[in-house]
Design a protein that fits this description.
The chain is of the alpha/beta class and about 350 residues long. It folds into two domains: about 150 residues, Rossmann fold (3-Layer(aba) Sandwich), CATH 3.40.50.1970; about 180 residues, Dehydroquinate synthase-like - alpha domain (Dehydroquinate synthase-like, alpha domain). The chain is about 50% helix and about 10% strand. It is built from 15 helices and eight strands. It has a six-stranded parallel sheet with strand order 1-8-5-4-2-3, with helices on both faces. A two-stranded antiparallel sheet has the order 6-7. α4 links the parallel β4 and β5. α6 runs parallel beside α11. It is globular, with a radius of gyration of 20 Å. The chain starts with 20 loop residues before the first strand and ends with a helix. About 55% of the residues are buried.
């Protein structure tokens, strides 16, 4: 029992918000209306989707909501920018939307959760791909004028993940999502290091959830194959669990560490086209596990098993870009202590790390 002390009363408090419903499996898209009704949501629902995902799943979500008596209007969102979020927020507000359902890939889910956060309405996540753990997390990635940045948003009131729909997406998206979850291994190691060296607040529950999610992917890597709905079923639950671990922690700590800093640094300097977030994070995990002195070969083998790239060439980047990203990564979030420390890696150390792990 907490007692008063000379310094004053104990006033520590923390709120943890979780999805009330997580429905995953074959054909569950048709149950979106029932899920929203069970949550007691108000009559007007705004659907945020994309041009492609509207036909794949958006129209079916609209039908399911109307079947349960909801009044529905659909918006096709563009790129995940601040301006697009502000525009859609005002339109949904003017229409009188009482809850938001985002149907699509990661960017549409992010747009939807930020809109719901701005309007203070419930949010329902309906992913059509599973490229990262943002489908269930309280974080969103938006693009500003110069670069992407992460913002706090709403935890979904519900997640409805139809394995049949996700299977129809390119397999590369699922591979990216699996690699993103595997990165929890080094993210939690970084978090524990920050606790030991800087007394950073640490949640053993959040860490355990994140590590469990990563372990599920690592242990079933051989079963994750293209054109198998069972593969989606194996992967989607850990992906959702990884997002929930962030809700428990109240931050992205259990799922984002030095490997994510490397990925963000590489994305800033790469000029040869867009990179798949989870794929880059996976390669970063190999190198950061090496720095931690852990089983980096096991991480590399698991990533190869599921079809994720494990080299700079596989990512479509140069050796120089990898080395520069390794040298700059520590500067992206100086308040977040990781294995990279406060001074980062020298060029010689970065080159040795990239070569030693076979990334370059």
């Amino acid at each position: 029992m907490a007692q008063n002390s000379a310094a004053g009363t104990f006033e520590k408090a923390k709120a943890m918000v979780f999805p009330r419903t997580v429905l995953a499996g074959h054909g569950v898209l048709a149950k979106v209306g029932e899920v929203c009704a069970s949550l007691g949501l108000s009559s007007r629902g705004a659907i945020i989707t994309g041009r492609t995902t509207s036909g794949i799943a958006g129209v079916h979500v609209e039908e399911a909501l109307k079947k349960e008596g909801f009044e529905v209007r659909t918006w096709q969102a563009g790129d995940p920018t601040i301006d697009e979020v502000n525009r859609l927020s005002e339109e949904v507000r003017a229409w009188g939307g009482r809850f938001v359902v985002a149907v699509g890939g990661g960017s549409k889910i992010d747009i939807g959760k930020v809109i719901a956060s701005k309007l203070k309405t419930p949010f329902v996540s309906v992913p059509t791909t599973a490229s990262h753990d943002g489908i269930s997390s309280p974080r969103a990635s938006l693009r500003g004028e110069r670069e992407a940045f992460s913002v706090e948003a709403l935890v979904p009131s519900a997640v409805v993940a139809d394995t049949q729909v996700i299977l129809a997406a390119p397999f590369r998206f699922l591979v990216s999502g699996c690699a993103d979850v595997i990165s929890n291994t080094t993210a939690v190691m970084d978090w524990r290091l920050a606790q030991r060296l800087h007394s950073e607040e640490f949640s053993s529950t959040a860490a355990a959830l994140a590590e469990y999610a990563a372990r599920e992917i690592l242990e079933h890597a051989r079963e994750i194959r293209p054109d198998r709905e069972e593969s989606v079923w194996i992967a989607i639950r850990p992906i959702i669990m990884s997002g929930i671990s962030m809700a428990v922690a109240g931050s992205s700590r259990p799922s984002s560490g030095s490997e994510h800093l490397f990925a963000h640094a590489l994305s800033r300097i790469h000029t040869g086209g867009s990179l798949m977030h989870g794929e880059v994070v996976g390669v970063g995990t190999i190198m950061m596990m090496y720095l931690h002195g852990g089983d980096w070969q096991g991480i590399r083998n698991a990533l190869k098993e599921i079809g994720a790239p494990v080299t700079a060439e596989g990512l479509g980047v140069t050796e120089g870009e990898v080395v520069t990203a390794l040298m700059n990564a520590h500067m992206l979030r100086p308040e977040r202590y990781t294995i990279l420390g406060t001074t980062g890696l020298t060029r010689e150390a970065a080159e040795r790390l990239a070569h030693g792990t076979g990334v370059t």
